[in-house]
């Protein structure tokens, strides 16, 4: 029973990170049908920012600095990607563009940081453990879970209860109509793209003490984020949250019980959801599309 | 199909029946290309020949991507998975059963077909970019399975495959392996070309151009798309078996994201929808990856990423698009 508790907590921590990472991917896809294949690379930028700033056991101040630096880098990258993708009309071209950017960014990181596996320690006062039902559990992961819960609340307030959120949801549903109402949808798109990328990069910093940083991690994270988005439903915050929590649990259970087949379990979960609900569990309400 | 042509404004340029003169020219070009390719081992040394063998195997993978992306309009990033299934199957057959190349290719074909049938059943329900997303998720799942599954060597890959033999005789030199790979690749090209020009191929182009209209005309896009997905999986697996026959070592990197991305890049560089364009693109892309890479400190992906971005902005229709320009701007004979 206690080992299951650890697995469930691990899954929740993973789910919190996945929610931060997948949110931008889902909203950007819902708004402009752009599959941002550079999302994993942006995550990796965040992870390497953490390596550069907190690599040799820095304190909480440095950790906060890393979070802010990663958010800035992610926002700049996301803004640049938004600008580039808006310059090409076709969806496939846009996906290819982000693919090219992903290759360049990931390879540049390898050039700068080498192909070693970097592992990171949690910042100094948080690197201990705490007793839960007789099991020692890292404090840092509990804080990640708390971060995920707070992020979910904030994003929910912002997207479901504010004027800006109403504009964002309306842009997901029917972009042409929103721009006909006199709202500059271009700015909304760039803003959401940048904010989503910044969240992914922050996710990279926060996941540093859990997943580390190494070449190839961008693909793994992109896969997890894609599965979250597909399972949860495109363009919806609640879908991303549900998908992230679900996939976090599947991933943690898979790694704990059947480590060799964890990725197969992931695919099976996605397939099962798609067979029952082809649009995902909680898709965004959208306009009729051709 | 006639009904489509009379009602649609411009359904598909490629679906137009070819004039006999053009068909004659196409056959002549194909025969010339085959003869030139067959003469390669007589002229070039061992390294360029093994390089070209890998290009041919990769071209078969690219052909399968083109079948889905260019002809049916289903952009895919998952074909590397079936390529890998084929390569692993051929290598396993080679290590444990027989070194007969034909058996390896047949086993890979069946394995690729089965893998595509299982996964495609879910994937073909999606359209456009969502399909791209699903195939990417499938491809990465298979990649990570290969990376962790100890039965196929896990992260270390699968080594120890004996040299391929054909009709009971071992192929000792790189040139003989090249001819074997060329023969199978040519057969795969012929099969895909025949499918692309058959009524079924026209149905697929119709689905690419307007799926709703095809459904309204009484075609059933679902089974047609599932069929072409299975076919593409089998073709990609044959490419994987050919790759294994040359390299004799399979690792999870052979079915990774980068391979899938390069295959799609080859199709886009070559011009999706034609068959010869993507094959040229495959050769070009592999040349850049394996040769240019050494000159930029092993960071070929950097160059390829830049090429990706450049291609999207400068050559939206690829090499074939350049060739299809009006004659007065055409520089080539």
Secondary structure: elements and pairs:
The complex is a heterodimer of chains A (290) and B (333).
Chain A: H1 2-32, H2 39-54, H3 60-86, H4 91-113, E1 129-132, E2 135-138, H5 139-161, H6 163-173, H7 175-180, H8 185-211, H9 217-232, H10 237-257, H11 262-276
Antiparallel strand pairs in A: 1-2
Helix pairs in contact in A: 1-5, 1-6, 1-8, 1-9, 1-10, 2-3, 2-4, 2-8, 2-9, 3-4, 3-8, 5-6, 9-10, 9-11, 10-11
Chain B: H1 2-7, H2 20-43, H3 46-71, H4 79-96, H5 101-123, H6 128-148, E1 165-166, E2 169-170, H7 174-197, H8 199-209, H9 211-216, H10 221-247, H11 257-270, H12 276-295, H13 300-314, H14 318-323
Antiparallel strand pairs in B: 1-2
Helix pairs in contact in B: 2-7, 3-7, 3-10, 3-11, 3-12, 4-5, 4-6, 4-10, 5-10, 7-8, 7-10, 8-10, 11-12, 11-13, 12-13
SSE-based structural type of chain A: mainly alpha
Largest interface between protein chains, with number of residues from each side: A-B, 50 and 44 residues
Structural class of chain B: mainly alpha
- Tally of extended strands of chain B? 2
Name the beta content range of chain B.
under 5%
| Residues in helices of chain B, as a percent range | over 70%
How many domain units of chain A? 1
Overall pLDDT of chain A? 84
Helical content of chain A stands at over 70%
Give the count of structural domains of chain B: 1
Shape descriptor of chain A reads: globular
Shape of chain B: globular
In the CATH hierarchy, what is the class of chain B? Mainly Alpha
Beta-strand fraction estimate of chain A:
under 5%
Order of helices and strands of chain B: HHHHHHEEHHHHHHHH
Radius of gyration of chain A: 19 Å
- How many β-strands of chain A, per DSSP? 2
Instruction: Describe the oligomeric state of these chains in a short phrase.
Output: heterodimer
Distance between the termini of chain A: 50 Å
- Biggest sheet strand order of chain B reads 1-2
